[in-house]
Amino acid sequence: MRELLAPQLARAVEAARPQVRGRVRGIVGLSVEVSGLEAAVGETLLLGEGAAQVPAEVVAAEGSRLRCLPLGHLTGLAAGAPAVATRRPSDVPVGPALLGRVVDALGNPLDGGPPLHAAPRGPLHATPPPAMTRGRVDAPLSLGVRALDTLVPAGRGQRFGIFAGSGVGKSSLLSMIARGTSADVSVLALVGERGREVREFLEDDLGPEGLARSVVVIATSDEAPVLRLRASLTATTIAESFRDMGADCVLMMDSLTRVAMAQREIGLSVGEPPATRGYPPSVFALMPRLLERAGPGVTGSITGIYTVLVDGDDHNEPIADSARSILDGHVVLDRRLATAGHFPTVDVLESVSRVAGRVTTPEQKAAATALRRVLAAHRDAKELIDVGAYQPGANPEVDAAVAGLPAINEFLRQDIHDITPAPQAWARLAQLVATLGGGR
Q1: Cα separation of 331 and 350, whole Å?
Q2: Paired strand residues for 154
Q3: End-to-end CA distance of the chain
Q4: I want to staple 235 with a disulfide (CB 3.0 to 4.6 A). Which of 67, 217, 375, 403 is the partner?
């Protein structure tokens, strides 16, 4: 009986606690300065009164002053407005009740469905499992995309990035993976997306079948930077709840770059110095903390798939370079393939899976290596072939590539609604390599 009454007693004690009020001292840009309160970084304050009350997250503390960033619009808030500490930890609803639901960065439903008050809640700022207690990435995870399952194979608990410029097919590739993966649950975070694209992605790309076993977290580009950052943390917390239940979960975040941009706005607003290309140091501290939360757990796993929007198609810009150093593999999308109508636009020769050797059999690895050699030989001789300077017979692998290029492209191309299970993809690859001859 005492255990049953404990939550009620805790709520009663919280309600009876004297309420201490502070004051808004200033509003500059995105930042609100509050005095007269004691609160820790990460806590939520309520600014203003009545219907105009705005929640804000404490992001910095300096002496008796707190710097906060709002979780909503500041219209109507003025200096001198009251500020109240909620004394509540930052948490969000988690668990199976969220399957098939679309929520915002705070965990509130956006799909018109019932509220999630009864769902358990998980901490927004959790720590990853200790390194020595985590499982190993040694089992393959089918994604339903032939080019990925065979030439850039993923493992359960792997974390890899999809690197591309704008408009090259990142979101479409994520929707294919959400519908075709063999994982138990998919959690999608759409961070900084254009508002008009949200319904298009949910209804056309993801579809009812994909949504039924997914949780979608949305923070559009017009929302406050704290909400955009919080959406990535909310999605990760939801994925962790499924992992801790023993499920194999896929966490897809589009995009990691917009999360970094949100943190840049936050850092600059509270006075951090701009460093590499205007990104403050907190951005590069955030990325490993966020990405390390994905991966294998003691039970279950989170396979993290993060899109990285490379600036000006420069794959060595700071965010892309930092992400590549943390992740367990990278998939590069090529704009030339996109303009040629080749989908998915995966440049298999520039894409690498760091766990490929542990999740494939020797026969599968040999077949993938053979096709890579043929593609590499064709790439190296492409200029000679295009101008008619290549002499047949000079290189058996180039001869095989020239003769088999239509079949290779047919294997690598895949319609967005065509899902190929991994066993079928490997069987088709084996047949393809056998016909190439020179690729062996």
Answers
A1: 7
A2: 141
A3: 71
A4: 217
